[in-house]
Amino acid sequence: MRNREQIVVAARELVARDGADVRMDDLAARAGVAVGTIYRHFPTKTALVDAVVEESVGRVAELAEEALRRARDGGSAWDELAGFLTAVADGYSARRAVRQTVALLGMDAERHPAPDGGGAARALAAIEALVGDAQAAGDMRDDVTIEDLFMLLGQAPERDDTRQRSRYVEIVSDGLRPRR
Fold first, then answer.
1. Are 98 and 56 in contact (CB under 8 A)?
2. For residues 24 and 41, is the Cβ–Cβ distance under 8 A?
3. Do residues 33 and 25 make contact, with C-beta atoms less than 8 angstroms apart?
4. What is the distance in angstroms between the CA of the first residue and the CA of the last residue of the chain?
5. Which residues are within 8 A (CB) of 132 and not within 5 positions of it... i.e. 6 or more apart?
6. How far apart are alpha carbons 67 and 71 in whole angstroms?
7. What is the pTM of this model?
8. In the chain, fewer beta carbons within 10 Å around the N or the C end?
9. Burial class (CB in 10 A: 0-12, 13-18, 19+), 138
10. Of 125, 44, 131, residue with least CA distance to 81
């Protein structure tokens, strides 16, 4: 299992950098395994990208569930949602590269998270709960939907400019607050 995890971690990094052009030799070197080991775990590049996407969706689910737990333990749902959005935006450039790679490999990027073992459903449930709690507390506009959040996150800056992403999240967050 350790080799598989090393391969997925290396693939996430290289897919973010190289997209569908990731070379198996480069991946093997980054993971510290032989190319044959990669193919034993992932018989195709598509299977490898599946694993990277599954891991990414699972991580988003964990972040959303952790934020919801903190909010339900007495924290502010709004603060937790804003922190979650920041964390997702900060990691977005890698996810965009993965999504582009999935599309290039002929997979349906919009429907792809379904086979992830429930990560997408877990993330969606936690985000919906955070939004509902923030709206119930009067900290978030009542007309904001989950689809709105995904649309906004889809526009997050890709560059590795933390200041630019922080400014983006600040402006988006202000727009999600109730009009007063």
1. yes
2. no
3. no
4. 53
5. none
6. 6
7. 0.78
8. C
9. exposed
10. 131
Nearest to 50 by CA among 94, 10, 90, 101: 101
Is the dihedral angle over the CA atoms 7, 12, 16, 19 positive or is it negative? Answer: positive
Say how far apart CA 85 and CA 169 lie, in whole Å: 7
Sign of CA dihedral 136, 60, 17, 53: negative
Q: How far apart are CA 23 and CA 93, in angstroms?
A: 20
Q: Report the distance separating Cα 78 and Cα 71, nearest Å.
A: 8
Question: 36 falls in which pLDDT band (50, 70, 90)?
Answer: very high
Phi, psi of 75 (to 5 degrees): -80, 175
Tokens of 26: 């480069």
Mean pLDDT of 28-50: 90
119 vs 134: CA distance, rounded Å: 22
Q: What is the pLDDT of residues 113-159, one digit of tens each?
A: 444 557 778 888 999 999 999 999 999 999 999 888 888 877 777 76
Beta carbons within 8 Å of 47's beta carbon, 6+ residues apart = none
